[in-house]
Amino acid sequence: MDLIFTDPPYAKQFLRLYQPLAREASRILRVGGFFLALCGGAYLDQVFAAFNVPGLEFFWKYEIELAGKEGGMIWPRGNTKVPIMTRSKPVLAYSKGRGLPRTGTLGLFTSNGADKRWHHWGQDVSSARYFIDCFTASGDLICDPMVGGGTTGIACQLIGRRFIGFDIDPVACRISKDRLEHSDAMTDMPLFQT
Q1: Is the pLDDT of residue 120 over 60?
Q2: What's the CATH class of domain 3-192?
Q3: Relative to the CA of 31, which of 3, 44, 84, 193 has its CA 20 to 30 Å away?
Q4: What residues pair up with 58 in beta bridges, in sequence order?
Q5: CA 35 to CA 56: how far, in whole Å?
């Protein structure tokens, strides 16, 4: 696998998913391959701890700025009652060995935000396309083990990457499969029209 690009659920009850995900990334990535995961900010310290597995090296913490959005609410842990407003979401990048992105990457990528048409936790295609393009080359194999609504697959179609995705939710798999089979990805993203 050249890249794992995924968006696990952010809520506390799903933190148990992060360490097995990191172990699997360490196992299936080629040397120099990357593991990128979008994650929420409320439990970022615990996500970093879960990703600390043999075979993976922390590369960088990127941010997707949510342009034109009021932001999301992070309810603090502990005794404080004051929420924190956020206008960005972290993207953690790890490499297997000492990998380098194919191109230079921005530390802060601006996006119009989530796309909930296919999945209640769906993200926009432009963010996925940007990061996949920066970290892989044409023909590379990309995996999304939490495929949701198929956003990673659409991004791969746009830029000529091979894609494999799966999900524990059979409805999400069916929606993603349909979306990928019936997508005219080139017309979905005017940026790529000539």
Answers
A1: no
A2: alpha beta
A3: 44
A4: 94
A5: 9
